[in-house]
Amino acid sequence: MNRLKKSTILFLMSAFSIAMVSCAGNKEVSEKSNSKEKGVFVRGVDSRQDETYSVIKGSVKRLHSIMCGKFVQYNTALDPEGKKYSTWLINEGQDSVVVYHLPVGNPNKEGYWMYNCQVMTSLPNKPLHATFSKLVEINRDTIQAVYYDLPEDFEASLEDMLSSPKKAFESVNLLELKESEGAEVVYVRESPIHYKGETRWFADERETNEGGFVATYFLVRPQMMVFGSNVYNKDKEYLGQTQGERLKKDAMINPSYLR
What we know:
Shape: globular
Strand content: 35-45%
Number of strands: 15
Order of helices and strands: HHEHHEEEEEEEHHEEEEEEEH
């Protein structure tokens, strides 16, 4: 299961860059959000409503918009049925964990990219993990997320990204980034605003499923993203899935700010 957790962290931090392009930047979304905020994020119920994203045309653009934003990580360890969940606290309960998926680049030139990072609240400029990712359309109902390593000379802090995004990412050539080995998620559209993704399969290290496999799954919704594990036996038959951890959306990218 260590490999599973590494795969999960890779996606979340490695794997969901603010530039002068909008993650949800179109007229419909801008009007729907009705935000007067001047900052990067829009908070409140609109940022999690289905209607905010259902008006976005194009599967890749819509998925990109749903995934972008600020998320607070929750766990369901004390509630296997997943009906209740609590903020994930680490560092002896001193810190909660926040995940940022921030749009970067010009989608008309480079496609739909994100900078993804996971941070502790007390150390926002020292991410637990960070990466770039790109969403690529395979067909109308299938989208692949491919992950890329950060350039060795990339030094922008989260504060820089949120206060001066264009400057923070001006040195990054997205088309020359090195692809992370074995890091990709394939998403299938379940509905116009619901997507389900899965990573590559890894050997299941538990004795109870000897010779079997596990893969990290992701459920993407406007309200939150959920990740857990799909389990398969040695004959590659599906056995079920674990109850997933939650990334509850705290804020979406402000369309007016990024326009």
